[in-house]
Amino acid sequence: MDRKDEKSEAKGKGGNKPFQSDKPEGFLQVERTLNVHLLPKTVKRRVYALKRLQLQSANIEAKFYEEVHELERKYAGLYQPIFDKRRDVVAGAVEPTDEECEWQSDREEEDLAEDLQKKAALEEKQADPAGAEAPRGVPEFWLTIFKRVDMLAEMLQDHDEPILKHLQDITVKFSEPGQPMSFTLEFFFEPNSYFSNTVLTKVYKMKSEPDAEDPFSFEGPEIIDCEGCKIDWHKGKDVTVRLIKKKQKHKGRGTVRTVTKELPQDSFFNFFNPVKASPEGMDVDLDFTLTTDFEIGHFFRERVIPRAVLYFTGEALEDDDSYDEEDLEEGEEEDLDDEGEEEDEGDFDPKKDPPPAECKQQ
Amino acid sequence: MDRKDEKSEAKGKGGNKPFQSDKPEGFLQVERTLNVHLLPKTVKRRVYALKRLQLQSANIEAKFYEEVHELERKYAGLYQPIFDKRRDVVAGAVEPTDEECEWQSDREEEDLAEDLQKKAALEEKQADPAGAEAPRGVPEFWLTIFKRVDMLAEMLQDHDEPILKHLQDITVKFSEPGQPMSFTLEFFFEPNSYFSNTVLTKVYKMKSEPDAEDPFSFEGPEIIDCEGCKIDWHKGKDVTVRLIKKKQKHKGRGTVRTVTKELPQDSFFNFFNPVKASPEGMDVDLDFTLTTDFEIGHFFRERVIPRAVLYFTGEALEDDDSYDEEDLEEGEEEDLDDEGEEEDEGDFDPKKDPPPAECKQQ
Known about the structure:
Strand content of chain A: 5-15%
Helix content of chain A: 25-40%
Largest sheet of chain A: 4 strands, antiparallel
CATH topology of the domain at 38-95 and 137-212 and 219-239 and 265-321 in chain A: Arylsulfatase, C-terminal domain
CATH class of the domain at 38-95 and 137-212 and 219-239 and 265-321 in chain A: Alpha Beta
Oligomer: homodimer
Shape of chain A: flat
Number of strands of chain A: 6
Largest interface: A-B, 169 and 172 residues
Radius of gyration of chain A: 27 Å
């Protein structure tokens, strides 16, 4: 899955001066990096002219991305009614009509082995005995997605799960025109016993112009910073900390008292309390943490929010290089094959054109 | 370089019914693929309703990409004057003014070790003794790029190089509005002794709507086919074939005559004579060949054409996981570090947003 457009190998040194070589063989020792200074002055200045032209391209490109961003805002509006309907079906606020539930190319049906069918029938009886205590909407829709997607599952702690059962929707909001480019992830919760917020937010700020220092590295909008939000935990419900009791001895009197201290604890909800990005002198760990955080934000925006149901059913989960065929049951193998057809955003596939954050609303 | 959004591992089988489980622990055995049939009927039909909504999204997305394509056509027009200027400077048709050649942040200057400077001075004397036989434009600009980019260097044969010295420009042309989505690579050659064509073309046809069979795999426009062009080789100059002499004995008379046969031969110019894509029953080799061909076409369009000078100087060549630091000279190491900042299109980096073919003109 790590196909690359090209590989750069460090070869012998020395400038490449193709125009001085006559024999094709001469070219086989071409350098990876041309030392522009080994070019004749006349040629060197022309190459600088070409680099100035390249700068002009980079600036036009920045404008292009601004327009794509606007296009994306426009389409966000077109998708919204669909996402709203999804939210209502998931929450059980609306019951879809039979027509809305028709599923023609019912692949699952075909794949379903007979014994599984029997099993299913049995399970169903257990599930709703005479329809009693029938589940509302699609229970634990988002929690299930968190468990499916490894990137999210890695953040998920046991103590997060009962809280995420109350997660009812995740949306993305784009910055207004004229504002600095950014997007905001919004996590909507039903009233619950853990915190009083109805929505938790995470803002990702983006930079969409070439860097003055290194204009040629510009490849489109880039996440440069993020900001979480304060969670108003109910007393003793904050899962991002754990309480430890500590004995303290009074110097003078020697009496001993017990105090309670808060220590940080792993939790998905630390996602809303991110380390701040500092442009200069960022240490490696912090840089790694931020990269991961940006990756997660990007993934929510690009993949999870637009195609949540496919992560719920597993259809959007990609095939993995490292999965072991021996481990598979027939049924699963078929499933994984289906998933294999999904594109991996991390994999460069020239036949697909995975779009940038600024250019996608799927 | 193969960071992935998520990994799918084949876990134990059996449907995941989170809504029936009360304890968080229950969720740790979540399935990668939910067997929708193990959901209660009421929930199952809601999930189908969500999948129908997902189909609506995919269709809106297809419209989005059509608009991005239009945006890209618009920007192609904005880039054209820059590319034309590049072509003229490379060919030596125009001599840039001193102002056009000013290069402020002259990184190379800083990196240049003293001895290299001396070397450069020396080389220059050799290069143009009193400016005699001064090179026109930027000699072998495109050939040098072919040698730098491994993906292209792999196709390049010794016998191709003298021909590619005559390559003067590579451009991309987009399909007209209303036409099926495609892009055409155009390779412009100065008059030469090898073939009479002044331009060689390669058309890449794209599909930009969800596949009826597998709509959820839609991720944007996809290259589905390509078509090369006939090269009118001058007699005996076709480097895509080699001639072998063969003795033939006449049955009756027993006289022996020598005939010449053409056998195919490796050459970059086979790029213009591609195997055709056949939707059904494509054998693995053919599929591989096509994938590679699409990859190369995409790479010309997305990377080489928009930023040719950076491949000429080496600045656009990416750092490679597998390169061996021990091999590096100081100067080169700095160069490679610079390249390291370049994004690898094949590497998912959430902080960057590498755009899709339909969404990029850099």
